[in-house]
Amino acid sequence: MPKFAPATLLASIIAATAIAASVPQSAHANQYCQCVGYVKQVFGITRPMGNAKDMIYSLPNHGFSSVSEPQKGDVVVMSDTFPGSDRTYGHVGLVEDIVNGKVVVRGANQGRGQFSEAGCRNVSIIRFRTPFAGRSDISFWRR
């Protein structure tokens, strides 16, 4: 392993730090995102939104209204009791499709088949297996 003189190593660290500090924030695309962060970035929301399951309280403050007939691009909010969502925080994403009464979700931190979008490197599209009709632990929102 090559050895560096302390002054050379320090100069390299300072130079790298200066370069990183000068890169615009938007260049930090492809970060690992939580589901809430992905939805916020898609819609350009900068204020805090709370956990995924709590977004039902903050979405109206950002111009969203609850809808009963979900369409592609709507926000889907799942409570912590909806099968497949996180048991503590719930889950949020975008409606990609509705297939046989089940929602297909585009979102971050969902697992397999990941790609980059809206500054997140961990976006995927997954189909939830539970029909949503008549359930109170899932809601859909449109701006």
Question: CA-to-CA gap between the ends?
Answer: 56 Å
Number of domains: 1
Derived from helix and strand composition plus strand pairing, the structural class reads alpha+beta
Provide the succession of SSEs: HHHEEEEEEE
CATH topology-level name:
endopeptidase fold (from Nostoc punctiforme)
Unreliable segments of 5+ consecutive residues: 1-27
Largest β sheet strand count, sense and barrel closure: 7 strands, antiparallel
Using only CA atoms, what is the Rg?
20 Å
The shape, in one word, is globular
The CATH class name reads Alpha Beta
The CATH homologous superfamily name equals endopeptidase domain like (from Nostoc punctiforme)
What are the main properties of this structure?
single chain; alpha+beta; endopeptidase fold (from Nostoc punctiforme); seven-stranded antiparallel beta sheet; 21% helix
